[in-house]
Amino acid sequence: MKKNFFVLFFLFTIKLFSQIDALHYNIYIDSIDFDDQLIFCKTTITLDVGINEISEISFDLLSLEIDSVKCENTLCLYNYNDSTLNISGLFVDTVDITIFYHGHPTLDIGGWGGFYFSGDYAFNMGIGIDNIPHNMGRSWFPCIDNFTDKATYDYYITTEISKKAVCGGILIDSTFINLSTIQWHWHNPHPIPAYLASVSVGPYVVWKDTVQGINNIVPIEIYVPNSSLAKVPGSFQNLKSIFHIFEKYYGPYKWSRIGFVGVPFSGGAMEHAMNIAYPIACINGNLAYESLYAHELSHHWFGNLATCESAEEMWINEGWARFSEILYKEKLYGKEEANLLIKNLLSDVLKKAHKVDGGFYPLCDIPQNITYGTTVYDKGALIVNTLRNYLGDSLFFGATKYFLEQFAWSNASCIDIQESFEQYTNIVLNDFFQNYLYHSGTPHYRIDSFNVSHNNEINFIQLYTSQHRYGGDYLTEHDSIEVWLWGANKEMDSLKINTGLQNYFIGFHHAIAPIDVWIDPKQKTADAIINGYAFLKSISNHSIPNTNVIITPTYLEDSLLVFVEHHFIGPHQILKNHPIHRISPNHYWTIHLPYLDNNKVNLKISYNRSYPINIDPSDFYLLPTAASVDSLVLVYRKNSTEPWQIVNFTKTGNQVAGYLTTVNAKAGDYAFAISEPGQSNINDFDNTNYLQIYPNPTNDEFKIIVPTSGFIQIYSMIGDLIFEELIETEITYKILDKGTFLVRFIPCNNTKTFQKLLFVY
Ligand SMILES: [Zn+2]
């Protein structure tokens, strides 16, 4: 509801204040001084200012020098503060404003984006990763530099005759200005935002081809230095196939040409419309960088054609472009290749995205300092993939094409995508968007237990599922997830079940009376579990990728099926008066061995107590490195209806990282724990000054004071971690629920952990 209100307000403000619309840019770079890294330019902007006369027009332009400004054909007044150019006059309807300027163009503050000089090359990269706003059209021409103002372009770039200028569009002509200089005129008839305008000047030759598109023959032009020309066919050998894949699933390519231009830049590529700036080093004759150009090409549907309305919704550009890498891999190399990529992305997102990006954020509201971060690209791709599996291919790709037609040459928000997909599919997607896009974190679904009863030879299956969330507290009322039912004779069937609410029950009839039920083994839903399965056929170590688990059969009658789940939440176990003092708050495993019979396996799970700066789940949260690893134990339960108990295990490794191994492992849940308070040097209910809480009891805010930096954790009495933060010396907090809570302090540099009870009334 809040979201809707926000959008209405936004449209309202646009109407009032932003009626100025750039229609067309004529950009002239009349001279480029490579020695002093200067450009001498004029840009004429054709604007629609609306029917009401206005007295000032503003453009974005970064740190260049203004020589003069003409409104229509007469000089007009302006002021310029190195970022905004304000032009005074009386403007109504359509006006042409010409700005004469020169200077040394700037780069993004972090170095990625802006206008570059490098040896014989001068070129722009239209996005600045660290600048806010990110749009960098303003680094080389005055413009309305945002994601929504779209205009057409003509470029007139003058170079010495040993160089060419390559711009986004079609080369109209090249004219000798004199014996030593030549002017290159490029025309782009398609409306684009200023960050997608482009120029690259250098000693280029061109590799040309054409491809038969759905609607027409599309020219392909790849501009490279002569030394790279022979490598183009090797590197781009699948370009046409990838183009056909995107046309098939996203709809016809609407642009005048497919274009790449090699640039001496190693930080990545930039999807300038029809003129993708592409690292010369990546044109190396082989396929190593294929997914890079596939990604940039796919932006000609997502980003360049339908553009995100705001930087906060950049997943519409970048999440879909990364998803396009998965899609082309699947269609070109097969599903296994694509699934591998999906699993690796999920592992990266769960382990690192919140570390790299500094927190868990909703995909539709990403802070601008991480617009181009892991959450937007990788989680964005996984959520697109999850939506695909949620709807099925036919509806998903139909809706994708429908959306791209609806928002072609325009802008879209998250709500626009949701509504467009709803219109096409006739499926209400509010639960999906709330769950995966409008709230931070990742859902965790689990089958806690299942039951099979038989009535007249018909199997009735009851599944008890639970839902938690990693990196947030939202719980969805509805989702749909694939499960596999395994029968006694190794027969298997997959079906989709509804999950929802914190604890959920479904019952259904099925031909298979399952002895084991797996949830989402193909990782079709981006939930907070990394899993993997394998058929073990030899007495050797089998690592299940990304799960931290190695399974080693010690006796095999035949092959053995194993399915491993690594859960990225704690096991939420009641611990009060329990012999296990403390259980891992942030992860555990489920090992499925449906046909174990007489086979025997060892289970080896790695621990890592590294200080959790860059990676999760770190076992630092269970047992800080300052305390001895001797306290770490392996615990087991058959399922979540049974209590945890310590299993026999051996420990290998060092104080920070190593393995706990149990022999003759059974199917069930495994977790790390601390068995006895004494073993872990936990100072229970400590009376010293190490952990002060006041007021205590409290009915409002309370303050926690500690003498050194460390983690504060607050647990409910059923063992749920309800608060955790790394603090320096103090924090003020408030718990809305009433009751008794356990406050734990884990100093970064001490050998003890301290805890106290907190009473809230
Ligand atoms: Zn991209």
Protein model, in words:
This protein is an alpha+beta fold. It has 5 domains: 20-202, tricorn interacting facor f3 domain (Immunoglobulin-like); 306-440, Neutral Protease, domain 2 (Orthogonal Bundle); 442-522, Aminopeptidase N, middle-beta domain (Immunoglobulin-like); 528-680, Chondroitinase Ac, Chain A, domain 3 (Sandwich); 681-760, Immunoglobulin-like, CATH 2.60.40.2470. Helices cover 18% and strands 41% of the residues. β22 (442-455) and β23 (458-470) form a beta hairpin. α6 (335-356) crosses α7 and α7 (374-391) packs across α8. The radius of gyration is 30 Å and the shape is globular. It starts with a helix and ends with a strand. Mean pLDDT is 91; it is low at 1-18 and 677-687. Zinc ion (ZN) binds next to α5.
Shape: globular
> Average pLDDT value?
91
Structural class: alpha+beta
The profile of the biggest β sheet is: 8 strands, mixed
Bound molecule kinds, no repeats: zinc ion
Number of domains: 5
Enter the CATH topology name of the largest domain: Immunoglobulin-like
CATH hierarchy, class of the largest domain: Mainly Beta
| Beta strand % | 35-45%
CATH architectural arrangement of the largest domain: Sandwich
Gap between N and C termini, in Å?
Answer: 33 Å
Spatial extent as radius of gyration: 30 Å
**CATH homologous superfamily of the largest domain - what is it?**
tricorn interacting facor f3 domain
In which range does the helix fraction lie? 10-25%
